[in-house]
Amino acid sequence: MTAVLFFALAAFTVAAALLVVLARNIVHSAVALIFSFCGVAGIYVLLDAEFLAAVQVLIYVGGITILLLFAIMLTTRIAARADVFNEQIGLSAVIVLGITAILVYASLTGIPAFERPPVSPETTPALGRLLLTTHVLPFEVASILLLAAMVGAIVIARREGE
Amino acid sequence: MIPLSYFLSLGAILFGVGMFGVLTRRNAIAILMAVELMLNAVNINFIALSRYLPNSTLDGQVFAIFVITVAAAEAAVGLAIVLALYRNFKTVDVDEINLMKW
Question: CB pairs below 8 Å between A and B: how many?
Fold first, then answer.
């Protein structure tokens, strides 16, 4: 049952990701990206990471995709175009297929078959405790990074002379 | 029980799809979308390894949270740069923005 769910979610996620990359209309790409992020959130649930799944839906589906859609509306004319790919598509396809094949082969053969340890009942409280004890320094640095990114985005996107 | 290698393979395939998008798309916003796909693939690997490795703690999930944080910051700054590019060049095709190309 879990295996069927995994394969369904994986196929859904990869199909949506392919649509993101291959779609001629940029808005179709953005909508397919929403579905791909939702599929990844499902994969997180299968891995017993419920908090990460919620964060994925909140930040990626609710935040980043909307931001991307705003940028699309503010810049390009929304229409299907014939020349969405540049001229290095053939070489890129070969290289990407090669790297992906190597990575999948290494994943399937080089990883010992670990048994899943029993699930701890409370991952979210443990996660919060880790963030504020062991990883408190990166946590604070991340907040400074977000502040700097916010100020930087405003400064870059602002019109000159205002 | 799904073996760990299946999750890692899914991460590898998703990474490959994202990399293809980064290498081939002309639209700068589409390239940013493909980068987000690659970051998601990395997160799948982090969380799968954090779940499967013996004697593991939740460190992989903490790392995934930091990756998501950086992805959000990257998207905000990246889209601001795209808007500034559009204002200066009236296009977001990365092939036509070649002012600094030798």
Answer: 226
